[in-house]
From TrEMBL:
Name of the protein described by the UniProt record: Chromosome segregation protein SMC
Localisation per UniProt entry: Cytoplasm
One Gene Ontology CC term in the entry: cytoplasm
Pfam family, one: SMC_N
GO molecular function, one term: DNA binding
Record-linked SUPFAM superfamilies: P-loop containing nucleoside triphosphate hydrolases (SSF52540)
InterPro entries, sorted: P-loop_NTPase, RecF/RecN/SMC_N
Alphabetical keyword list: ATP-binding, Coiled coil, Cytoplasm, DNA-binding, Nucleotide-binding
Positions in coiled-coil regions: 55-96
Residue ranges of domain RecF/RecN/SMC N-terminal in the record: 80-241
Main location: cytoplasm
């Protein structure tokens, strides 16, 4: 029937008869054979089928994706701002760190040279930053020249000379930034009596120039004789330790 034909036309072309007539009117002068027409229809159907079903939620999905995209863009901008602030903060800390390090380095280096000459009775010593122009990344080399010797690194000195040099450096650090307590554990062991005396003289000078209390662990008689107070550990009974304290100034008065 006519109605059936019209319905079939509408289903197959998805066009109403009026619209189909309008489209065909523009091409009525062209002669199209039936096989060509069928081929064109088949091609158009394949193109239509390739499009798949219509997503009725496409607009809503697109809106959701856009909102998520906008959120990510905003978070990215926040992260970039935070990174810039963090970098600025790190640069500021590095700049302040370099300034403080160089200031402390100069103070310690000056005191180190003076104390070295005092302990050795002459000579010179200095600290040198090596391996990098940036003080925060640089290494530290100790250059020493005891009296009568060539300038060399710390590793080329004798055991006693290394000990005195290390003590000069420790005391130089304490002069720049004194601490309440300094513990020296048998630092006089490699030293002979003359150098032990120099060490004790330097220790007296440090107690006058700083408020640091020096606790010296030693077995050397000269060092013990120069201390203000001695603490010893005895074992009167097997497995039982006893702490003994002696004030040398009081002991000297009692002996006198």
């Amino acid at each position: 029937t006519v109605d059936a034909a019209l319905e079939r036309m509408r289903e197959e072309t998805e066009l109403t008869p009026d619209i189909l007539v309008q489209k065909l009117d523009g091409a009525h002068e062209q002669t199209i054979s039936v096989p060509e027409l069928e081929a064109t229809i088949a091609r158009l159907r394949r193109s239509r089928d390739a499009l798949g079903s219509v997503n009725l939620r496409a607009e809503e999905d697109a809106r959701a994706v856009q909102e998520e995209y906008d959120l990510l863009v905003s978070e990215k901008a926040d992260l970039e701002t935070a990174i810039e602030k963090l970098r600025a903060g790190i640069n500021g800390l590095n700049r302040e760190g370099r300034e403080r390090l160089l200031t402390a380095f100069e103070q310690v280096n000056t005191s180190f040279g003076t104390l070295f000459s005092h302990l050795f009775g002459g000579g010179e010593a200095r600290l040198v930053l090596v391996e990098s122009d940036d003080p925060l990344d640089a290494g530290l080399e100790i250059m020493c020249q005891p009296p009568g010797k060539k300038l060399s690194t710390l590793s080329l000195l004798s055991g006693g000379e290394q000990t005195l040099t290390a003590l000069a450096l420790i005391f130089a650090v304490f002069l720049a930034n004194p601490a309440p307590i300094c513990v020296l554990d048998e630092v006089d062991a490699p030293l002979d009596d003359a150098n032990v005396t120099r060490f004790c003289d330097m220790l007296d000078e440090m107690t006058r120039r700083t408020n640091t209390r020096f606790l010296v662990i030693t077995h050397h008689a000269v060092t013990m004789s120069r201390m203000d107070r001695l603490f010893g550990v005895t074992m009167a009974e097997q497995g039982v330790s006893q702490l003994v304290s002696v004030d040398l100034k009081v002991a000297e008065q009692l002996v006198a």
